[in-house]
Amino acid sequence: MKTITHWIDGGLVPAETDATSPVYDPAVGEVIAQVQLGSVGDARVAVASAVRAFKSWSEFSVGKRSSILFRFRELLAAEQNELAAIVSREHGKVLSDALGEIARGLEVVEFAAGIPQLLKGEYSDQASTGIDVYSFRQPVGVVAGITPFNFPVMVPLWMSPVAIAAGNTFVLKPSERDPSASLFLADLWRRAGLPDGVFNVVQGDKTVVDALLTHDDVAAVSFVGSTPIARHIHATATAHGKRVQALGGAKNHAVVLADADIEDAASHLTAAAFGAAGERCMAVSVAIVVDSVADELVSVLARKAREVIVAPGNVPGADMGPVITPAAKDRIEALITSAEVAGATLVVDGRGFTVAGAEGGFFVGPTVIDRVTPEHEVYREEVFGPVIDIVRVSNLDEAIRVINENPYGNGTAIFTSSGEAARRFQRAVTVGMVGVNVPIPVPVAYHSFGGWKDSLFGESHMYGPDGVRFYTRAKVVTQRWPRPRSTDARPSFHFAGDSTH
To answer: Cα dist. 21→5, 174, 322 in Å?
Structure first.
């Protein structure tokens, strides 16, 4: 059986222990590989490689760094079909969705390739007589990226291209559930001309994570995952003097007003709720609908949910594949059952779903649950599966109140033809990313991605301008070049400035 190892100092490296974890093909329910679980020692070896590489990489010109980013982008685009197949096999998402994930990662690579422009500083000539002041940004050092299973390509590409372009070196700890994509990316970086040690991969679990969080030579940590782990990452890493951006969980709501195009809204909600089997931090898991159109929306949504083509990811025309593990399937189905027990209405029930020819796969069918309230467990929990809750409200103000009382604040959307309602909504909701007739408002690469409340720990959002600032630190220089043996200026004895002002 295939064994998946680390990538350190420019090549594959076996772990120092024999501990492994199974990697499934979730469409058939079979173990297809074993990933080695790294140790504290493995993490230290990777960080040491990154420390050595930083000394020279941080001195590369921004033009040279940019040229490597451009080559990496071309290789990634050329190899995207092979990479998508790897993602689909280990994650279960359909090939079209895997390609979409890679496309969003490519956007960030293209943004990072513009690093000469992004790192331009500021200059103030003659700030005082004979004195100039200027600022620039320098890399922070070794950066650790800890990424989730649901986007094994996109999320590492939210982090590593910006960090590397800015002159840092990078240690990636991918999810042990679908680890092969990380090694594919590492080889692309090598082929693009990235020096050994600038990009490293350490496979593993919490042991490796905590080793990176507490390592003295790790300067910054980027994380995407669940809220409890994001809270742990932030608390532990900041206690050890590191800068941290930790993106947590979500409960994304979409509001449907009476003046919305119901058919269009239902189509978008279907894709946003069930795409990637709902295993997205930006999936719409709650539709808040005003009473006057609730019955109509539920009817259309139910019809569209039943039309979703559920199949293994490599089946042409499939809309949705399996969830990642049998444990995930059991958890999702238990939450659906809890809603039924609590009195909600199961309009479309995805429990016990099977696919002909793939009966062992970890499939949960599209599920629509009506008359859910914020007290129900299926509403309180981040389901991370193909489930959408319908919460009925009387007006927009009540919808905003429901959203703002939720502890998460990642993404939200509104479907309406009223500009006034949309503007009121986008200003009033306590959520980091807002869509207007756009169900999944993931920003383009030259803006930044991040939520509010329990969806983000730390001040920095990811990629875009925030990413550049996070992976660099500012330096300001005040300089004066006096004439030789000059006697025309006396130094100042007070803080306000010199006597030549």
So the answer is: 11, 13, 20
